[in-house]
Each structure stands twice: as C-alpha cells, then as structure tokens.
Write a structure and sequence with these properties.
Distance between the termini: 20 Å
Structural class: alpha/beta
Number of helices: 6
Order of helices and strands: HEEEEEHEEHEHEEHEHE
Mean pLDDT: 92
CATH architecture of the largest domain: 3-Layer(aba) Sandwich
CATH class of the largest domain: Alpha Beta
Strand content: 25-35%
CATH superfamily of the largest domain: Nucleotide-binding domain of ferredoxin-NADP reductase (FNR) module
Low-confidence stretches: none
Length: about 230
C-alpha cells in the first residue's frame, strides 16, 4: 500500500479540478494531488465516488499522470448504458470528489519490450511511456494497440509523438487508409514482430489478455518475460 495512505488511514478524498472527454466515451479527470503522494508508473488505485450510496462501490483505475506533475490524472471509459460507477463518474463536475481507497501494483516496467494493448488497456502503458519519454529512455519499445475504430483511440497523437513508427494501430471494426483492419492474432503477431525473445507487456479486457498471452507463449515467448 502507498505509504501516504498508510499514514492517513482509509479513504483519501480527492477533489476534481478538471474533466474532459478525450473520445466519445473516455473521460480524462484531473484531481488535486496531496503533498508527498507518490506512486509508480503503471500503478492503479481503487476509487469510489464521494457521495451517499456510492462510497462502497469501489473500482480500479490507473494513474496516467507522473509523480512530478502537480496533479493526478485518470483516464476512464464511461459506460453510459449502465447505471454503474463509471456512468456516475461521467456526470461529475469540478469541485466534486473521488475517494482513493488504496494504491496497488498493476503493470510495472521491467525493461524494453513490446507492449500490446486493447482499448482502455492502454492506460497503464501511458504513464510508463511518459516516464520513459521525458527521461529520454524510450528506446527499444514497440506498441501494438487494438481498438474497434479510429474514434476509440486514446491519446493517439501523443502516443505517435512518443513512439513514432514503433506505434501500430489495429482496428477490428473499421477500415482506415494507412492502418490495419484486423484482429491481433497469431498471424499478425508473426507479421509485426521480428524477435519473440524479448519482454511482452499485455493489457486489456480479460479475454483479450488471456488470448494474446496464450498465443505469445505458443510462439516461444518465455512466460517469465510476459507481464500482464
């Protein structure tokens, strides 16, 4: 657990200082950052809405900001069709609060490798890429990012700025000139990846992560080099 939360005890209220939709269903939320609060790129927190009836409805979201930033940032997919936590978060405004219950290890950077993300599975990678980019250590990194359509890409321009040609988009529902319209499968991985004797970072929906991990191991990837 984060030392800051150990000191304060359970539930740390964080005031919202900015919100905006960065895709049609993904919201970027900035929060006040308590002095001395620290976390590692790729880590997540368990959050709830600081309102009656919502405090005990806790969900995990990944920090996409960096430690030296003066605020905390979350990028959250909003499911408007459900009467759940993300729907409620989607309606929050500046001045309202989220509650942070704890900080936990998600995906931790262990060295250069290939990152494979599905949808909002990109969020733990964003903080890792940002940390490496600003420290000028973003080398020998590749990203294969799967979405339904081009409109679902999260921070595509920033990802391209950081990764350049090492960033490959894959679309499953829409043909876009210059991009690949297909599922990330065994054939595509063989086509895109030259060396399977490297680290692989995989994040996305459970079935996506399980399927990609299984294919990679079948292609000879050392399970110890697979970070999911």
């Amino acid at each position: 657990m984060n030392p800051y939360l150990n000191k304060l005890g359970a539930m740390l209220p964080l005031k919202i200082i900015g919100t905006q939709f960065i895709t049609h269903n993904v919201k970027q939320i900035t929060l006040e950052k308590p002095p001395g609060f620290i976390y590692r790129p790729g880590q997540s927190g368990h959050f709830s809405v600081n309102e009656e009836g919502w405090v005990d409805k806790i969900r995990p979201f990944t920090f996409t900001s960096l430690n030296d930033w003066p605020y905390l940032e979350l990028i959250i997919k909003i499911y408007k069709e459900r009467e759940g936590v993300t729907n409620r978060i989607g309606k929050l405004h500046i001045g309202e609060e989220l509650l942070l219950h704890d900080v936990f290890g998600s995906i931790e950077y262990k060295g250069p490798g290939i990152f494979i993300a599905g949808g909002t599975g990109i969020t733990p990678f964003i903080a890792i890429f940002r940390a490496l980019y600003y420290s000028q250590n973003l080398r020998s990194i590749g990203l294969i990012y799967s979405n339904r359509t081009i409109d679902d890409i999260i921070l595509g321009q920033e990802l391209f700025k950081m990764l350049g040609p090492a960033y490959v988009n894959v679309f499953t529902r829409q043909g876009v000139i210059g991009f690949k319209e297909r599922k990330i499968d065994r054939n595509l991985l063989i086509e895109l990846i030259v060396n399977f004797e490297t680290r692989f970072y995989v994040c996305g929906p459970k079935n996506f992560t399980e399927e990609i991990s299984s294919i990679l191991i079948d292609l000879g990837v050392n399970p110890q080099a697979l970070i999911i």
